[in-house]
Amino acid sequence: MCELFALSSNHPANVTFSLTEFSKHGGLTGPHKDGWGIAFYADKDVQIIKEANSASDSECLNFVKSHHIKSKFVISHIRRATQGEVNLENTQPFSRELGGRMHVFAHNGDLTSVTTDKYLQHSIAHPIGDTDSEYVFCSLMDMFKDLWNSQQVPTIEDRINVVAYFSSLIRPYGPANFIYSDSELLFAHGHKRTHKDEKQFRPPGLHILSRACFIDMENKQGIKGLDIQSSQEKQKVMLVASIPLSSENWEPLNEGELVVFKDGAMIKSVKIAA
């Protein structure tokens, strides 16, 4: 299966990635060669760098590692293709504009026959590629169209309700682990996935880790393949990953759990029956 990673922090941080290293976690080195992508938010806009090939010999990845891009929200995806050809249009993360800001989505799983669901419509956003992931993301944008096209920014509670409803629609079709951001909030939905040496899907599908204060972060155990740097002394960071990236106490999300982050802190956890 694919792998997801995300970061939320209260101050912009330099995040240096080795996506090649991430793809090794869980003993899944071989399959993750069908594309990679990373999104760095800058206020309401986002910079996305992605390729439809392996990260192991990527010049673009070297660019990412050398430029130390600062961001409060980072979303990353490493692809193992299940639906859709191996090309750029099927490479995640996906993005769309709505309500004057960029929305970004990345999914891990295989949503079989999801295109038959009558509640997943497309009127304002349409898929460019042919993946199940982009299909449902466009449907999520459709669910948000009235809220985000109003004169005011939707309330946090209204946004959470929409994402929770969306997650309940897609879970019956297969593993529905996803990360989504509207440039202010970061949503992570954990479901189920395959784990090392297993073929059956089971929870957890995502894990989270809190790191508070940059000074403490320096003394914590490092994460191989990931370097977080900040000039702020009071830095709060929440990390989300498909598989724990260190021996620290990563918290597994329950099956069907939706968590919401803002400024490096969890502001809501919604445990929904799977």
CATH architecture: 4-Layer Sandwich
Count of helical stretches: 5
What sequence of helices (H) and strands (E) makes up the elements?
A: EHEEHEEEHHEEEHEEEEE
CATH homologous superfamily descriptor: Aminohydrolase, N-terminal nucleophile (Ntn) domain
What is the residue-averaged pLDDT?
86
- Determine the strand fraction and express it as a percent band: 25-35%
Share of helix among residues? 10-25%
- Structural Rg: 17 Å
Tally of discrete structural domains: 1
User: Which residues form runs of ≥5 with pLDDT under 50?
Assistant: none
User: Which CATH class is shown?
Assistant: Alpha Beta
* Morphology: globular
Describe the structure.
By secondary structure, this protein is of the alpha+beta class. The chain has helices spanning about 20, 60-65, 130-150, 155-170, 215-220, and strands spanning about 5-15, 35-40, 45-50, 70-80, 95-100, 100-110, 175-180, 185-190, 205-210, 225-230, 235-240, 250, 255-260, 265-270. The longest helix is centred in the middle third of the chain and has 17 residues, at about 130-150. The two termini are about 20 Å apart.
